[in-house]
Amino acid sequence: MAKSSSGALLASSPFRIFISRGEAFLFLIAIFLLLSLFLQRISASSAAHFEGFDADEDEELPVSDTKKDDYLSTHRTPHPSISLSTSTPESDHGPPDSPVADQGSGSTPKPPTTSSSSFDYWDEDEFEGIPQELSVPSDERASTESVPGTGQGSEDEKLDEDSKSTARTQFKIGSYSIEIVCISFLIVFGINYFTGKKENENIALAWASKFAVKDSIFDKNFSLLGVGETDDSPLLLKEGQNVFKFYASGRRFCTGLLATMELKSRHDLISRLYNMVIPCQDEITFEVYMNDDAMDHVIFALARKKLAKTMQKEDRDLQRFAALVAPPSGRKWVAEELQVVSESKEVAGDLLTDAVLDQVFGDKSFEKFGKGFISMHLSDQHAGGSNKKMLVFKFALPDVNHMADMTRLVALVPYYIDQIGRYKLSTHARTKTEAARSKVAQEEYKELQSSRQEALQKKKAEQRKKVEEAEAKLSAEALRKKEAKEHARQMKKSMPKLKMTRAH
Fold first, then answer.
1. pTM assigned to the model
2. Which of 61, 89, 87, 88 has the alpha carbon at shortest distance from 74?
């Protein structure tokens, strides 16, 4: 049944919700860690202003010397008042002698004049750790103001200040380079997540709109489409950000069809970068579960040559029953890049009809319509599932605008359902296939018996080991009693059996 609303094409499974919540939780944890690292760096840089009174930190202030003195005088605690006193015998400290010798006897000593700075007679050994503030004499200050070219010096000082501020800005930006890179990566990762998720959903919805709506191929061949039984049920089941499933049932010869779309991990930034180096393609796999009485002894596979050889070595049913089939002479056959793997040439010839060769698998048609073909595997001995009789088709998905290019490939699915359901082997071919299957069944039975024997011997060995460990823990008296009991049992077992009869 076709679905009328395109908005009901997509459904999210509980597994998909669990994955999205897990990814969002990890994303929030990463943001929290980066914010904590950022705050820790800011707190460390702000705390550096309260550690000691280093001269280097003061030099980094972008102000002039006079402003620096004003800044220090306003931010420092006032110095204790210091009074000058004459030297006494009890004190060794006193004002230093004048270095200038008296030039004459007639000269009278000048009284000591108090300087504008109270630190002229400062003893550095007595008071340690207190900075000295020396005032510049007024004469020198006036001379510096009167010297020409002072304006040029102020311009140089401004240039130096600008260069220092630029260097500090660059240093601050460089100190947060790790945080900037991490936050940028998270932003790009988040943008790629939502855009890639949307791209995958658009591809899945484009395929469903082309082949699973009203009057499409699956609507004409199956009576029930989608994951539900009502008209409002969605057609697609989303199991992940790149995995979508489609189910159809209600057709003869089969119990149902399951289509699985495995798209590129476009939502993952790492996977997207990896796919740029090693390209991959979007794939869709159709699994048709045949009825037990609707499929004869058929094992057939068709793929490109390299993949066909790999399938013949790895797939268990192809490895046991099938072999590579050489192109026959005198009839049409598949394109040169394709390889047939079949149990018999009769089966390969009957399944590769002229209509299929003209539509898809011929030399000319395959170049035009078979670009998305990957493999086809039809087997009544399919391994790895509860249903052995299965038809498996694997195609490559085109982009959203070229979804109609795989119309002929999708049409192969209902065609081979009818072809296998009506196909019957000849008597000669059936005899060979039955003999091969009975032989394989005997080999499987022998393998099963040998595995059971190995398991039984392993179990006995474990029991024997446990008994030996228990005997090792017994005392000498208990061990002697056990040996006597075992000896009595063996003696009783070796005695001849006597049968008593009643005399008449």
1. 0.62
2. 61
Neighbours of 265 (CB within 10 A): 19
Q: What whole-number distance in Å separates Cα of residue 123 and Cα of residue 93? A: 8
Q: Which residue has the tokens 């699985």?
A: 260
Mean pLDDT, contiguous 10-residue spans, the chain (504 residues): 46 47 70 78 57 45 46 48 45 45 43 46 55 48 46 63 68 75 90 92 93 90 83 83 92 92 91 88 94 90 93 90 88 90 90 91 89 92 83 93 92 94 89 88 88 91 86 76 82 72 64
CA distance to 214, 360, 381, 410, per residue, from 406 (Å): 18, 10, 28, 6
Burial classification of residue 263, based on how many CB atoms lie within 10 Å of its CB (0-12 exposed, 13-18 middle, 19 or more buried): buried
The total of other beta-carbon atoms located within 10 Å of residue 132's CB is 10
Q: Would you call 114 exposed, middle or buried from its count of C-beta atoms within 10 A (0-12, 13-18, 19+)? A: exposed
- List the structure tokens of 432: 């060979």
Backbone phi, psi, residue 354, to 5°:
-65, -35
